[in-house]
């Protein structure tokens, strides 16, 4: 049986595929998940993450960008961008505990990050995003918008 980590790994791959031009990835998602032996609740979890991330992609990208410091969003590696998007989606739009989200993203960064410092970079960006989001929630701003 697949784990949530494996489900997230599949979602990162599909977000990457979408980013490089596979606009029909949502239509193929269930088949891809089946091929990866991700079924039942984990498949529903993965599909929900993918669907939500794609639905809110523009807002997610706008939320990530201020926390990149000296990096331009378009210069990020495709896999790093996919990992940040998934992590940001979970922080902004789900009830998953932030430390779990960040840990999962960092572990994926260790596996798929294009550079040695990818895990630290992902950690820093998602941590800054979560702190900004937490403070915006404290002052009553809308969920998903910081």
UniProtKB/TrEMBL annotation:
GO terms for biological process: DNA-templated transcription termination; transcription antitermination. Residues 6-130 form the NusB/RsmB/TIM44 domain. One of its GO terms (cellular component) is cytosol. GO terms for molecular function: RNA binding. CDD domains: Terminator_NusB. InterPro entries: NusB-like_sf, NusB_fam, NusB_RsmB_TIM44. It comes from the Bacteria. Keywords: RNA-binding, Transcription, Transcription antitermination, Transcription regulation. Gene3D superfamilies: NusB-like. Transmembrane segments: none annotated. Involved in transcription antitermination. Required for transcription of ribosomal RNA (rRNA) genes. Binds specifically to the boxA antiterminator sequence of the ribosomal RNA (rrn) operons. PANTHER family: ANTITERMINATION NUSB DOMAIN-CONTAINING PROTEIN, N UTILIZATION SUBSTANCE PROTEIN B-RELATED. HAMAP family: NusB. Belongs to the NusB family. This is Transcription antitermination protein NusB. It comes from Helicobacter marmotae. The gene is nusB.
